[in-house]
Amino acid sequence: MIAPLVLALLAPAAAGPLVVVTVTASRVILSPGERAEIEVVATIGKGFRIQANPASQPFLVPALLEIEEDARVDVGSPEYPPGKPYRLQGTSEDLSVYADRLVIRVPVTARRGPGARSPDELVLEGRLRYQACNEQVCLRPASVPVRVPVSIRLGDSTR
């Protein structure tokens, strides 16, 4: 079982990393003190699956969404859906994976501050780290950037 995984991890990257996952994120509109959820949607390339979070084996890299904090927004812990079982050819154990489309939800809260006089627009930066497998091998871990647009509107920050 480990041989195909080790070969894929040791293989040199040909013309750069293969892009298997693309990511989009929903725009969030908040008032000071308000909580909402970001939806980060990962589209997984045909024929590939990515390791779930948590991964089924300690040597596999789980999908991991990291979003940087901002002075104006508190970012909570990502909520991952359960993975689905999948077995690589020639192996005897199932992997826990995501296929096709993955939606990760992240709670965010606009911080209360001294009375803002104008709306604020910002972009939370982050990345989705993943390890993809097709029917025969698992590729080296990779990551894609995540950009989350956030609008903070005027509101009562004394609530």
Walk me through the structure.
By secondary structure, the chain is mostly beta strands. The chain has one domain: Thiol:disulfide interchange protein DsbD, N-terminal domain (Immunoglobulin-like, Sandwich), CATH 2.60.40. It has one helix at 2-10; strands spanning 21-25, 28-30, 35-44, 49-51, 64-67, 73-75, 84-86, 95-99, 101-110, 120-130, 132-133, 142-152. It has a 4-stranded antiparallel sheet with strand order 1-3-9-6, with no helix packed on it. Strands 2-12-10-5 form a 4-stranded mixed sheet, with no helix packed on it. Strand 7 (84-86) and strand 8 (95-99) form a beta hairpin.
Keywords summarizing the entry:
159 residues, single chain, four-stranded antiparallel beta sheet, mainly beta, elongated, 1 helix, Immunoglobulin-like
Secondary structure: elements and pairs:
Elements (H helix, E strand, L loop, with lengths): L1 H9 L10 E5 L2 E3 L4 E10 L4 E3 L12 E4 L5 E3 L8 E3 L8 E5 L1 E10 L9 E11 L1 E2 L8 E11 L7
Parallel strand pairs: 2-12
Antiparallel strand pairs: 1-3, 3-9, 4-8, 4-11, 5-10, 6-9, 7-8, 10-12
Strand order of the largest sheet: 1-3-9-6
Please estimate the helix content: under 10%
Portion in beta strands: 35-45%
Please work out how many helical segments DSSP would assign: 1
Terminal CA distance reads 57 Å
| CATH architecture assignment | Sandwich
How many extended strands? Answer: 12
The name of the CATH superfamily reads: Thiol:disulfide interchange protein DsbD, N-terminal domain
- CATH topology: the name is Immunoglobulin-like
Radius of gyration: 19 Å
Mean pLDDT: 83
Q: What's the number of domains?
A: 1
Overall geometry comes to elongated
